[in-house]
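User: Can you recover a sequence for this backbone? Please restate the input before giving your answer.

Assistant: Of course. Working from this structure:
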């Protein structure tokens, strides 16, 4: 029974309407609603009751289970790409479906062909389906990466029914890579590949295949201009894990971040460096983010941060300069602009640091994005250092959350942060009061600050005053 029904679906958020309209009421986007017809087979659109079960409308009773039953542990296969396994939560889970999104050219295909090759070399069956490139192009990349000897099975296909039929022949693969989900299409939906209903139905078929066969399936997803994975958000809800592969333009390193993960943590990151021979794992990102530090310059502070379970040291750079504009500029790369406004307000209200007529630029070196409030103290230190021209000690790290009252609040995992700082040769840490007790890091002197104003006074007084190109600004 393939009675076709026509719906109007927003290509941006996936909301569906009975008739066409100019604006999507669900997401507010204009001109995104397109006509799509869905064959009433139960895939993609609303399931037509009974049709899929041959007219049977009465349900079948099933057995309910308790929470305390014995459970097979989620069987995982390590890809041997350590940074990838870390983000996955210890390896690929059998039957799981992972969506990896990222800007074009960021290295998604490179990462996945490298991981596929590793797995295949360990004797697992791995199938790589490219909907974007011809087999020859994939081979060329593999040649460049010196992976041609790995027994990965390749195909350039876009029809999901054909793909599933091919995969069901032979033993179930350990990993199937679909590059990308936007190029896949199914016979059951009449609209063009890449439209909401095609992407949703194709994903649904592939997910069903993964659950049935036990193969892990990785779907590559395109992202839109504002960084969302293109296509309906529903695909994000359907899969077990959503990862985003990011990198700043001009930088060589790439960060794999879990946005959602049913089988692991979401705050771990995997760090890679794009080289002429593909992606290289970076097991110690602090060294990378601190490389090429400008030691004698004011306006830089090293922040001892945490990314998941791993401490990461990164340089925070601030530039404060008198503004010629009525409304001074505030530009932030790698941190939350609202958080910067807050730190500026606290500096103004409680520490007498007036930046109302200064442009403020803040940059997290190396293209890392920090979400932790623990960076407040390092940001404040960098700002004051830039304003006063006092260079902060090169061997000091900073961490601590600043509250609106100007108090410096303790943050989690102080010991791990201090340990990493020690490991990288730092000898001093400026930390919140409580963290001092936690620290048992021999060889690392801690200076506890309870209030931001103490730190500001310290920097102004004891910082190594440097000649400034311009007359002393501010204060
Ligand atoms: P690709 O994996 O094709 O990106 P995506 O699938 O996310 O679109 O990566 C393409 C970019 O990576 C391209 O700009 C060239 C660069 N690259 C290298 O720098 N070194 C390499 O070894 C490879 C294979 C690609
Ligand atoms: Mg690609």
């Amino acid at each position: 029974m393939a009675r076709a029904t026509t719906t109007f679906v927003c290509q941006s958020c996936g909301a569906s309407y009975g008739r066409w309209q100019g604006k999507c009421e669900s997401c507010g986007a204009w001109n995104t609603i397109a006509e799509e017809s869905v064959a009433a087979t139960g895939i993609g659109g609303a399931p037509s009751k009974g049709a899929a079960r041959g007219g049977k409308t009465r349900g079948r009773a099933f057995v309910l289970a308790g929470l305390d039953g014995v459970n097979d542990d989620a069987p995982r296969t390590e890809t041997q790409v350590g940074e990838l396994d870390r983000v996955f939560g210890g390896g690929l889970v059998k039957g799981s479906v992972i969506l990896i999104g990222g800007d074009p050219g960021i290295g998604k295909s490179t990462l996945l062909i490298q991981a596929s090759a590793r797995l295949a070399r360990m004797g697992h069956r791995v199938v790589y389906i490219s909907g974007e490139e011809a087999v020859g192009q994939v081979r060329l990349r593999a040649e460049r990466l010196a992976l041609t000897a790995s027994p990965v099975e390749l195909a350039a296909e876009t029809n999901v029914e054909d793909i599933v039929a091919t995969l069901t022949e032979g033993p179930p693969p350990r990993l199937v890579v679909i590059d990308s989900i936007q190029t896949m299409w199914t016979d059951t939906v009449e609209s063009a590949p890449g439209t909401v209903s095609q992407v949703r139905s194709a994903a649904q078929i592939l997910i069903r295949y993964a659950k049935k066969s036990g193969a892990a399936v990785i779907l590559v997803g395109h992202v839109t201009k504002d960084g969302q994975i293109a296509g309906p958000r529903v695909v994000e809800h359907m899969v077990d894990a959503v990862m985003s592969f990011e990198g700043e333009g001009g930088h060589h390193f790439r960060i794999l971040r879990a946005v959602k993960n049913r089988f692991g943590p979401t705050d771990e990151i995997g760090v890679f460096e794009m080289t002429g021979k593909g992606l290289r794992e970076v097991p110690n990102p602090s060294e990378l983010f601190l490389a090429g530090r400008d030691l004698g310059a004011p306006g830089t502070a090293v922040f001892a941060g945490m990314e998941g379970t791993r401490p990461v040291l990164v340089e925070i750079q601030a530039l404060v300069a008198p503004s010629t504009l009525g409304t001074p500029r505030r530009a932030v790369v790698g941190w939350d602009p609202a958080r910067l406004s807050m730190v500026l307000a606290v500096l103004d209200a409680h520490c007498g640091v007036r930046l109302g007529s200064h442009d403020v630029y803040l940059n997290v070196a190396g293209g890392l994005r920090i979400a932790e409030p623990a960076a407040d103290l390092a940001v404040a230190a960098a700002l004051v250092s830039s304003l006063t021209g006092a260079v902060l000690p090169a061997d000091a790290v900073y961490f601590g959350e600043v509250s609106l009252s100007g108090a410096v609040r303790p943050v989690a995992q102080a010991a791990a942060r201090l340990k990493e700082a020690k490991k990288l040769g730092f000898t001093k840490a400026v930390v919140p009061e409580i963290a001092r007790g936690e620290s048992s890091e021999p060889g690392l002197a801690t200076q506890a600050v309870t209030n931001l104003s103490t730190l500001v006074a310290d920097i102004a007084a004891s910082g190594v005053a440097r000649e400034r190109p311009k007359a002393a600004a501010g204060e």
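That completes the design. The pocket of magnesium ion (ligand 2) is lined by residues 108-109, 132, 179 (CB under 6 Å).
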